[in-house]
Design goal:
Layout lengths: L2 E12 L39 H13 L3 E2 L2 E2 L2 E4 L9 E4 L6 E10 L2 E14 L3 E5 L2 E5 L6 E7 L6 H17 L10 E11 L9 E6 L2 H21 L7 E6 L4 E7 L9 E2 L6 E2 L2 H10 L4 H10 L4 H8 L2 H12 L4 H18 L11 H12 L5 H14 L3 H7 L8 H14 L1 H8 L5 H12 L6 H12 L1
Parallel strand pairs: 12-13
Antiparallel strand pairs: 1-10, 1-11, 2-6, 3-16, 4-5, 4-15, 6-7, 7-10, 8-9, 11-12, 13-14
Helix pairs in contact: 2-3, 5-6, 7-8, 7-9, 8-10, 9-10, 12-14, 12-15, 13-14, 14-15
Bound molecules: adenosine-5'-diphosphate (ADP), magnesium ion and zinc ion (ZN).
Length: 472
């Protein structure tokens, strides 16, 4: 029999806020040593009260707008009770009854075509701490307790592992380009709900849930393994499928039962009376909407229209910092296609020499736009522009001062260029003879020598024309 795979995802994303969701401790990118970012509130001291971080609401709404959700105007928090050492209050503050966003839609594209994934809801909640096990001791690190999360719950609309991977990649680039989360390793974690059913059937089969998955490769492997296990169970009655929570073991590539599926009643949810309901009025919603970053698809289209290549677009969309730098220099009046090349080729090349990545780039939009404009306006040539860029990136110099100090903008007149050409021709008799004998390639060496002698000053096109004239 042929089976159809049915998958629904619950995805947790750590938000890039300066502080935690209910206290003023630093957010998830702050802590260095275990328990550096902890206060009486987020370590569960008796009597401490949560205070809502406004920024969390705004980022959650922004995410909802990006995923085409309805935004709730009235949203509340609930306590989800369970005991575990990484949860100091023995309850997690989350949203059950009035989540912040509902009914969204995310189109995903795979080689099999396009499918719309319905979003059931997005809710805000706090993260738990981390347990570290060493021999017979266990340690608890509360840096992560109360770091803000959004959980995005889909309807069971995925039909293949490819669709799941496409959806998660899309969320990642959207959240990065929107400044919602950098989605670094471990900052985006999924619970994967899987069932299979005979092809054509309308009813869903028994589902299992694989907890806490973050790498895309592992997610793909886990889905393939689990789907096969379900199909074998139905086809050959190898085992009875029960609704349960499982974990994936990367080494064996298999999933293992962890516990029976808990139900809502197990958690004794009840409204958190310590937090007021949040009302999102028209004015606030409009404010969030107007600050909303352009969605990834629209942004890619705009770059495409400006003549930026697909490969460059891919690099930009995955990198919030770099695409923002590009947007900023464009806003300062630089040409889009030109600027993309300066950033993705020239800046990247300069960093690569030092073993650094584009994401390590430290340059202000002002400094970069000055370099780009000096070249575009013909004030200095491109080679000189590159020199300035290296000095700006490596030594943090002021670009205009560097240009003045090194006289890169000095207009070199034809007389000076001709003098240099004469000198170079005299010093490179062999290459000149080769060129005159028909070896076109020899020209490049002579031209290079002229450029070197002129130390980057002068317009390369003019120099080349004068050189060819002279050689005739
Ligand atoms: P719970 O309250 O048990 O977490 P939900 O109704 O919230 O259950 O669903 C959790 C996730 O499981 C959702 O992403 C949903 O799409 C998915 N899901 C529900 N039923 C199935 C099924 N039969 N097969 C696969 N996924 C499912
Ligand atoms: Mg659930
Ligand atoms: Zn705290």
């Amino acid at each position: 029999m042929n089976y159809e795979l049915v998958i629904g995802l619950e995805t947790h994303v750590e938000l890039d806020t300066q502080s935690k969701i209910f206290c003023s401790c630093g957010g998830h990118s702050s802590p260095k040593e275990p328990n550096d970012c902890v206060c009486p509130a987020c370590s569960g001291m008796p009597g401490m009260l949560p205070v809502m971080n406004k920024r969390v609401v705004e980022l959650a709404v922004t995410a909802g707008l990006m995923l085409n959700c309805e935004i709730s105007r009235y949203t509340t928090f609930d306590k989800k009770n369970y005991y575990y050492p990484d949860l100091p209050c023995a309850y997690q503050i989350t949203q059950l009854n009035h989540p912040i966003c509902t009914n969204g839609l995310v189109p995903v594209k795979t080689s099999q075509g396009k499918r719309d994934i319905r979003i059931k809801q997005i809710h805000m909640e706090e993260d738990a701490g981390k347990l570290v096990h060493e021999g017979k001791f266990s340690f608890v690190d509360f840096n992560r307790t109360s770091v803000p999360l959004i959980e995005i719950v889909t309807q069971p609309d995925f039909r293949s592992a490819e669709e799941v991977v496409a959806y998660l990649s899309k969320l990642k680039s959207m959240f990065r380009s929107g400044g919602i989360s950098e989605c670094e390793e471990g900052a985006m974690r999924c619970d994967i709900n899987i069932s299979v059913r005979p092809e054509g059937s309308e009813e869903y089969g028994v589902r299992t849930e694989i907890k806490n998955m973050s790498s895309l490769e592992a997610i793909e492997k886990a889905i393939r393994y689990e789907a096969q296990r379900h199909m074998d169970a139905l086809e050959f009655e190898t085992e009875e499928l029960v609704q349960e929570t499982r974990r994936f073991d990367d080494v064996s590539g298999k999933t293992f039962a962890m516990r029976n599926k808990e139900t809502e009643a197990d958690y004794r949810y009840f409204p958190d009376a310590n937090l007021m309901p949040i009302i999102i009025d028209d004015e606030w919603l409009e404010q969030i909407k107007s600050a909303k970053p352009v969605a990834v698809d629209e942004k890619a289209d705009a770059y495409r229209e400006a003549g930026i290549s697909e490969k460059e677009i891919e690099m930009l969309i995955g990198n919030f910092k770099i695409s923002k730098l590009l947007d900023d220099v464009i806003a300062l009046g630089c040409n889009a296609k030109d600027s993309a090349a300066w950033i993705l080729t020239d800046c990247a090349g300069i960093l690569r020499k030092d073993g650094l990545l584009l994401s390590d780039l430290e340059i202000t939009p002002d400094a970069l736009s000055l370099v780009i404009k000096q070249v575009a306006d013909g004030k200095i040539n491109r080679g000189a522009g590159k020199k300035v860029l290296i000095a700006v990136i490596e030594d943090k110099v002021d670009p205009m001062e560097f240009i003045k100090k090194n006289a890169l903008d000095a207009k070199v007149d034809e007389g000076a260029i001709n003098a240099v050409i004469d000198k170079v021709i005299a010093a490179n008799a062999a290459a000149v003879a080769d060129y005159k004998g028909g070896k076109e390639k020899a020209l490049q060496a002579i031209f290079g020598a002229c450029m070197k002698e002129l130390k980057g000053a002068g317009d390369p096109a003019v120099i080349r024309t004068l050189l060819i004239e002279k050689l005739k």
